[in-house]
Amino acid sequence: MRLIIEVRLAGGDSDKVNDGDGVLAVVERRECSLDQLGLTLAEGRSLLAKVQAELISKPVQWWLSGQAHCGLCGAPLRHKDSRSTVLRTVYGKVIVKSPRLWSCTCEQTAQTPRRVVHPLSKTLESTTPAISPCNSA
User: In this predicted structure, what is the pLDDT of residue 131?
Assistant: First the structure.
């Protein structure tokens, strides 16, 4: 017997499968064998870690796509570079890309030069203690 566990993240009210959805795990069991009922502890932990990674990385990607424009004038922000941010969860670490963007020119004055903004890091620092960000490499 083969159990295939897939992930499908649907946005809003639709059941549309998004790109990148797919197989999380395949559990193989011998036919008609009662000595291997259910998941082992290692299989369960591994599966939950993969589910946690999907439940973090996809929403972070969607959220970041909405942060690429200036909140004041709506102009697109220029991309400086990307770093990785490590999020520690009860099921292990999840690594997500965290872009660094140049602030908008509409915010620039003689006293405040352009600076680099970190939308993900800034938001994670001020929110949920259940997932803790770590400084990245």
Answer: 52
To which H or E segment does residue 131 belong? none
Token pair for 137: 């490499």
Tokens representing 51 are 């589910």
pLDDT tens for each residue of 20-60: 568 888 888 877 667 777 888 888 898 999 989 988 988 89
- Distant-in-sequence, close-in-space partners of 84: CB < 8 Å, separation ≥ 6: 95, 96, 97, 98, 136, 137
Confidence (pLDDT) at 14: 57
How far apart are the C-alpha atoms of 104 and 136, rounded to whole Å? 25
Q: How many CB atoms lie within 10 A of CB 114?
A: 12
Q: Which of 96, 104, 103 is nearest to 121 (CA)?
A: 96
Determine the Cα–Cα distance for residues 5 and 27; give it in Å rounded to an integer: 8
pTM attached to this predicted model: 0.66
